Amino acid sequence: MIIITTKEITIRKFLLPIIISLIKNNINIIIITKNAKLLEMCFTNDQKNYLKFINFNFPTSIIEVINPYNFIKIIFKLRKLIKNSQNKNIYLHTPMASHFVRLSTFFLRTNIIYHVHGFRFHEFGNKLKNLFFFIIEFILQHKVNFYVVLNEYDELVVKKYFKTECIRINGIGIDSNYINKYSYINNYNNKKTFKIIVIGAYKIEKGYFDIINLLKNNTNKIFIDCFGYGNPNKFKNIAKKNNIQNINFNDFDENIIKKMCNYHCLIISSKREGLSVTLMEALTLGIPIITTNARGCKDLIIDNFNGILYDLKNPNELIKKVDILINNYDDFYIKAKKYKIECYNKFDNEKIIPVLTQYLIHKVQ
Length: 365
Hints:
The protein is an alpha/beta fold. The protein has helices at about 10-25, 45-50, 60-65, 70-85, 95-105, 125-140, 150-160, 175-180, 210-215, 235-240, 255-260, 275-285, 315-325, 330-340, 345, 350-365, and strands at about 1-5, 30-35, 50-55, 90-95, 110-115, 145-150, 165-170, 195-200, 220-230, 245-250, 265-270, 290, 310. The strands form two sheets. It has a seven-stranded parallel sheet, with helices on both faces. Strands 10-9-8-11-12-13 form a six-stranded parallel sheet, with helices on both faces.
């Protein structure tokens, strides 16, 4: 089997458990991604006997993609690489890699399983962008034999428009045993500053403008710590211009579960998700949650049951929802604790990985 992603971080963050599970079933794997050699340290010597790592620099910017020479060069180089591997079974991840792989394999005999982490088009997206990305996927879906999807919206799209077999799962799951090492305890009273943690890459689609708007207009005594990958300077500068001082923009912390235990609430303000791993981890931990009604968030959160949803088209609604949480904190804390019991069966990777492994093995035989 060939596993292909745009960047190695996708494999490190999400795919290691499924790769190890496939190895246990004696599946040989070729990993093609940027900085592939960095992944060698993630595996034991015995596991590496089943693995081959190939570095491939997929484009990461629109300028690289629209350069005709570069575009054609990538297509033919990737085609040659896949053809020489003499392996027709391809397990695809991430949009950029999935697009180039499928373009490069037209008229090649392949068996492609596309694990969609969220189509680029979605119900709240810009209409022109949605149309553009839908047309691309509609063309390239002819090179997909099976889809793996994570949310209801993507599942409906595959079944209605692509008419291709698919399986819907809760991502790769999470390590519930690890999360249960930490204990989340309600330590809030209305005399304290309400401490909020925000987790998400420092990108516009992660909703950081909503967070800044919250601090500009909220009258409660709150403080926000943000943790994410990427450069937060754009958001730092906006906060500074608005004289907002009760917010920090931090690098992502690998032990984010431990960090969550120090806050009263998690906010995920994403405009689009595949299926939020952070939300699954937070639900299992038992911390009260506020998130948007975006695809991949509303699949996990039922409003006023195991968390709070706000309309991503109405940032001011977040202000009201924070007020509701603060004024009814004990009730939402109890609801979060009760729902925590259900999370193991729904999200634990010990439940999900065997199902996905057997599905993949069945489809590559």
